[in-house]
Structure formats: C-alpha cells, structure tokens
Write a structure and sequence with these properties.
- Strand 13 and strand 14 form a beta hairpin.
- Helix 2 crosses helix 11.
- The chain has an eight-stranded antiparallel sheet with strand order 2-1-14-13-12-11-10-9, sandwiched between helices. A two-stranded antiparallel sheet has the order 3-8. The chain has a two-stranded antiparallel ribbon with strand order 4-5.
- It has twelve helices and 14 strands.
- By secondary structure, the chain is α+β, with helices and mostly antiparallel strands.
- The N terminus and C terminus are likely disordered.
- The longest helix is centred in the middle third of the chain and has 15 residues.
Length: 390
C-alpha cells in the first residue's frame, strides 16, 4: 500500500497497472506553477488517463490539465470537469455537524445511541460507548463496511460491479454490513479509518435536522459559497457536464481497463457520495480554513488531530487531514478515491493558498506528488510565498 494514499476514501483502489495516454498540458502559462504542471504530466506518464487541477492564491486562480478525458476519442481533460470526490465528502459532513454543535443542537460528546437508538449494536459494537466526535476522527473502532467480503465481491470486482453498479443501497444496509463484524478496537483506544463512521454521521444529521444530510450540505455550504459544480447526487448515476470518463482495472495488474463512469453513488452514502470540480473544492477548503463556515471554537475542534498510525506526517482531525509535506509546510484537506477517480484537495492553514487535483483512473499516478510540487516548489520558484504552520 502506498502510504500517502492510504487515506484515500470510499474505495482504496491502490493499483499498479498502467494505461498509456498522451500528456496534453492546458491552461495559461504560469512560471509560478511550472512544477505543478510537470507533476500532472508525470501522473499521466505513470499511467493515469488524465489529470486536472486548480489552484487559488493571492495572485488569482490557475488551472491545468494533462492527458485525456476519453480514451476512445482522445478528448482531453477539462479544467471544468465534474468528478466524484469520494471521501472529500467527509469534510462537508463534519462541517455540518460542527455547525449544528455551534447552534447548540447537539454535542460532539453525545453518544451515537442518543441520536440513533439501537442502530449500533451487534458483535460487540455498542453505540452507547461511541461519541459523535469518535465518528468524525475515526477513533470509534466501528468496522468499515468496505471490508465486508460480500460488499467487496459485489462492488470491487469487474463481474460484481457489472451486476450491481446501479443498485440503490440504504445507509442502514451499509451499517448492517459493518455490524456483521466485531469492532476493530474499543472506542477511543486507537485509530482506524472507517467509512461506516460517516454513514452514521449522515444519519445523525438527518435525525437532528429532519432533513437528509445532502440537503443540509446544500443549504449550509454549497449555496452560501456559490459552489455551482458541487452536488450531493443521491442515486443519480451520471456525472453532470462537462465531465471526463472514469476508468478502473479493479486491482488486476495489467488487466483490462473498464469504463466505470456510471454508478449509483448510494454505495458511498455520506462517506463519499459527492460530486464537484477542482475550482469548487479549492474554494471550499480555502473558505473553511479562513473561518467562513465555522466559528473559531468549532474550527479549532476540527483541527484538533490524532495520530493516524498510517504515516508520521499525517494526522486526522474531524473530517480534516493535517499533512506535513517534505518541505515542512502543513496543508489541510482530504483525499478521496472511488471507482475510476482519485482526488485530493488541500489548503494552507490560513486558507490563502489552495489546490484540488483529480485523476480519472484509479491505478496509477499520485495526487500527492502534485500537492508537493504546488506547496513545496524549488527555492527559486515564485510560489515559495506559501505559509507554513498548523
């Protein structure tokens, strides 16, 4: 497993096969982002079909693409492509729960049982012992439904996906898959990334507000920030235009490449259902870290991190990752991976410099390399102005 991508969300499709594709750089020439552009092209050289990225800083907005959005026609990727952001959804969900806390409608120290009585029970799981905070920072110990063998067979193999890609799955069903298994550890005693935590968090939002979590994300975040490319699709299987195709090899090195663009995102629910584009994600994380979505106390809570036990340079807050880059700069954001789509969105602690990047294949290329080049440029690079700090 590649350590930097170990936290890539809804599906951890860390594959090694390669699909050759031409590197086609787009966007305005900018010496301040030369290394970033080169990293996008390197991802395509490594085998990703295509890549797209947008950065925002004090000098404005910059975008670039590489490779293709459709391997059949050779159509290049677009800087305006919509794509599935997978576990980047978690930051939106955590933000809504923290807003509800700020409004006095819940406490992050409430038990899951208080809001979802009887839901987390079975095989040693007990919702009375798990807090909402532990859901958000992945210290609950609740088993990840993605690790259920039946789920993996149905959705992470070529044959299973072909049969089940349009299935509608309820949050209760996903939680039920997790509860077939024992907890990974006692609540609060360790750390373990579990998508079940955020399925439950979405259910709590609905219980507290009386509205689906997607409705709350839309009215509290998407609408106020005017994120026109961002949506919570529910069971809609298609991506809005403009879009690129999404490709997967289902972890078969050197195996066939499948077009997995259409799928029912209910398989991810509140752990990774959302769709966005690079410009919107860059705007969202910048606004979040600048304090435009949360009061200071809640933002501090969100940025209070725990050791992930995955890599020494990655800590996890409440739906927000703190990553220490090779040059010492700390960036805040999240990664996301789902069938045919690998994404990452990061921003500096002051929210002034943000980047979002997407690859439309899930087996080659590293979003982390693009992030490193954007925030850790060579010493002569004009972008050395970026701020470090936690």
């Amino acid at each position: 497993m590649r350590v930097r991508t170990a936290l890539v969300g809804t599906t951890v499709l860390l594959l090694s096969a390669a699909l050759a594709g031409p590197a086609v750089a787009a966007g305005p020439a900018s010496p301040g982002h030369t290394a970033t552009r080169e990293a996008l092209e390197a991802a395509v050289t490594a085998g990703a079909p295509g890549a797209t990225a947008t950065a925002r800083d004090g000098h404005g907005t910059w975008s670039a693409t590489a490779g293709v959005g459709d391997t059949r026609t050779g159509r290049p990727r677009s800087a305006a492509d919509h794509y599935r952001v997978a576990s980047i959804t978690k930051t939106f969900v955590a933000t809504v729960l923290l807003q509800l806390e700020a409004e006095g409608r819940l406490s992050l120290d409430d038990s899951v049982e208080r809001w979802l009585p009887g839901v987390v029970r079975g095989h040693g799981h007990d919702g009375r012992e798990v807090t909402l905070r532990q859901l958000l920072n992945h210290t609950s110990g609740i088993h990840d439904y993605l690790d259920d063998p039946e789920f993996r067979r149905d959705y992470f193999t070529a044959a299973g996906f072909a049969e089940h890609r349009y299935d509608t799955l309820t949050p209760r069903h996903l939680v039920g898959l997790a509860l077939r298994h024992e907890p990974d550890f006692a609540p609060g005693t360790s750390w373990g990334y579990s998508n079940t935590n955020y399925v439950l968090a979405g259910m709590v939002i609905e219980k507290v507000t009386g509205r689906p979590y997607g409705t709350e994300i839309t009215r509290r975040i998407i609408a106020p920030l005017h994120l026109g490319a961002t949506s919570v699709p529910g069971t809609r299987v298609t991506l809005p235009r403009p879009r690129s195709r999404a490709y997967s090899t289902f972890k078969v090195p050197g195996g066939p490449v499948y077009d997995v663009t259409e799928l029912n995102p209910s398989l991810a629910s509140a752990s990774g259902e959302m769709i966005s584009d690079s410009a919107d994600l860059s705007r969202f994380y910048g606004a979040l870290l600048r304090g435009e979505l949360l009061p200071p106390r809640q933002l501090k809570e969100m940025k209070t991190t725990v050791d992930t036990k995955v890599a020494p340079n990655i800590r996890y807050g409440l739906g927000l990752m703190d990553t220490r880059l090779a040059c010492g700069v700390h960036v805040w954001g999240h990664t996301g991976g789902i069938h045919g789509s690998l994404s990452e969105a990061e921003t500096t602690a002051d929210g002034r410099h943000s980047l979002a990047v997407n690859l439309n294949g899930d087996w080659a290329g590293e979003t982390s390399d693009v992030v490193e080049k954007e925030f850790c440029p060579p010493a002569s690079h004009p972008a050395t102005r970026v701020s470090a700090g936690r």
